[in-house]
Amino acid sequence: VLFVVGINGAPLRYRVHLAVEALAADGVAAEVRHYRDASIADLAMRADAVVVYRVPATTEVDAVVRRLKAERPHVPVVFDVDDLIFDPTLRGSVPGLRSLTPEAEELWWRGVARYRTTMEMADLFVGSTAPLCAEAARVTGLPTRQFRNGVGRAVITVSDRHLARPRRRGPLRIGYFSGTTTHDADWAMVEPAIVQVMQERPDVQLWLGGTLRTTAALDPVRRRVRRLPMMPWQSLLRTLRDVDVNLAPLVEGSVFNEAKSAIKWLEAAMVQTPTVASPTQPFVEAVEHGRTGYLASTTEEWVDAVGRLLDDELERVRIGTQARREALLTLSPHVQGRVYRQIL
């Protein structure tokens, strides 16, 4: 399998490197190349399948796909992505883009148009969530398959190491870790509930990671707020281990947010930290409410779920343990490899 990729960082790790590891566990060899790599033309002609992950349209990519379809029509071309970044008609309805400058937002939407062009060259769409696959089918008519974001051996090894030590001493901690610069609206939605929880429990700290703009509502408890920078995944797992409750809020009613995967639950689950999440479809799919995490929609539900976990250490242990077990049983390489091979 040839994976042609257009992005780096955590998305590449989840959608490509973990897929390569999973396929290897099922006896399938894979190569990974950036879409600007001149070798992709020759590699594509020797591959049994070509997966194009988040690649913007270029004349070179177009030429490779056209040649492949002309000379090796039996080789499937798959477009894979983990965000709803292929529908230009959503312009004006993506909450996370409000923090961008007009120039940056225009560039973002130009990228969406180019992703859509590449996507329409493909034979099949593979997405991380069911809503994402449904949107892909709706706007393009492509057949779709779901391949959930999972865990690799490196994550399992690092999380095992963190689980071998106790949580850092100190007060109880609530954590929210923003992976990008587009989560201000998500945090604003849950901020009133967290302020209420902290005012009722004067010993509780709040750890905020990444680039995030809070509001004045946080001022009454600001002395107990710790800001952390963006960090590599190894450091994030260590930090999540030292947090007692992990937050995964998303603005509801947004088709863009409904398509986002449950990564925040998955990462916390690996170090047995319980998560309270918004009930978008991917979180509903990943989280069994009351067993592997909590789902909350209203301010009252967020206050109740977070407060319940903070007040009951055994409940935190139970939820965290069940969450990790669920992640390992359903999303490990030996399971995911069979799924990807069936898709191909």
Describe this structure in words.
This protein has a 6-stranded parallel beta sheet with strand order 2-1-3-4-5-6, sandwiched between helices. The protein has 14 helices and 12 strands. It has 344 residues and is an alpha/beta fold. The mean pLDDT is 93. Strand 11, helix 11 and strand 12 form a beta-alpha-beta unit. The longest helix is centred in the last third of the chain and has 19 residues. It starts with a strand and ends with a helix. Helix 1 packs across helix 14, helix 7 crosses helix 12 and helix 10 packs across helix 13.
Range of helix content: 40-55%
Low-pLDDT residue spans: none
* Intertermini distance: 9 Å
- Which range does the strand content fall in? 5-15%
- How would a crystallographer describe the biggest sheet? 6 strands, parallel
Mean pLDDT: 93
Q: Could you tell me the radius of gyration in angstroms? A: 21 Å
Tally of DSSP helical segments: 14
How do the helices and strands follow one another from N- to C-terminus? EHEHEHEHEHEHEHEEHEHHEHEHHH
Spatial arrangement of strands, main beta sheet: 2-1-3-4-5-6
Structural class: alpha/beta
Could you state the oligomeric state of the chains shown?
A: single chain
Shape: globular
- The count of β-strands is 12
Task: Produce the secondary structure layout.
Blueprint: E1 2-5, H1 10-25, E2 31-34, H2 40-44, E3 50-53, H3 59-71, E4 77-81, H4 102-119, E5 124-127, H5 130-140, E6 144-146, H6 153-163, E7 173-177, H7 184-200, E8 205-209, E9 225-228, H8 233-241, E10 245-248, H9 255-258, H10 263-270, E11 275-277, H11 281-286, E12 294-295, H12 299-311, H13 313-331, H14 333-343
Helix pairs in contact: 1-14, 6-8, 7-12, 10-13
